[in-house]
Amino acid sequence: MLLTGLIGRPVSHSIGQTVYNRFYSSSGIESMYLSIDVMTENLERFVKLSKENFSGYNVTIPHKVQIMKYLDSMDPAASEIGAVNLVRNCDGKSRGYNTDYLAMEKLGSGRGLNFENSSIAVAGTGGVSRTVLYYMARRHPEAEVTIFSRNPDAAAVKLPSYVLEKGYEILSTKEMSQRDSFDILINCSPSGMWPETGESPFIESAILNCQAGIDLVYNPVDTLFIKRLRELGKKAVSGDGFFIDQGYESLKLFFGRSVDEELFRSTADIAIRESIVNG
Fold this sequence. Notes:
By secondary structure, this protein is of the alpha/beta class. It has helices at 16-27, 43-53, 76-81, 99-110, 127-139, 152-158, 161-165, 204-209, 224-231, 240-255, 261-278; strands at 3-8, 33-37, 54-59, 73-74, 86-90, 93-97, 119-123, 144-149, 169-172, 184-187, 212-215, 235-237. The chain has two domains: 3-97 and 241-278, Leucine Dehydrogenase, chain A, domain 1 (Rossmann fold, 3-Layer(aba) Sandwich); 102-238, 3-Layer(aba) Sandwich (Rossmann fold). The strands form two sheets. The protein has a six-stranded mixed sheet, sandwiched between helices. It has a six-stranded parallel sheet with strand order 9-8-7-10-11-12, sandwiched between helices. α4 packs across α10 (240-255) and α10 (240-255) packs across α11 (261-278).
């Protein structure tokens, strides 16, 4: 039996073990999904050792960028995006993928959002932020994108070249009070994620001024940001759909074949609802 799993630090917020292991049991897949807290100093060692007993694993904060240098190869899309959220091991070799991008494609086409010619604020500069920025540059080149970071100078150096080529502005989160008028707000940071559920990635005036908001945090589903959008009657897109979409794409890569999509989605939906009740 080959294992699957999630690596990051922390991973205690993830409901992946519940979702994937229930799905494996229901669909007769001989595997087990583990959530593993991996320190940065142990990342290279984990990548090496995992080749023996993991068919693949998801990657979350803070390893989505750094892990790239330890892999044997990269899917071209993941390489262009500059972030990996899934590693597949095959024949003793590791290969990095980005299923977040596939999930972003679905979100962009199926939620009634109009990115074209819109002003968009993106909070965060990590792996999922790179995916969103790549999507905007590729699919909605006319959108005006502003990135908010706690350390904009460092972000400007680390972000991939397509961000600079598009001329996206990178500002400090402290400058949000001076730049708070955007059509769409997208949270790609951990702000509001369990257990820090009292945080919001955007200030009140930005939420008041926007038309719609997307929060890619999925635990909790109803973050403080999402709740406030709904209170104001704004279009609010929570992160559960994104989580499920990238999860389904992950399964296909883990096992190199199609799996029961309907069963996976229903399994994930139930687990997410349970986490809301129990949380």
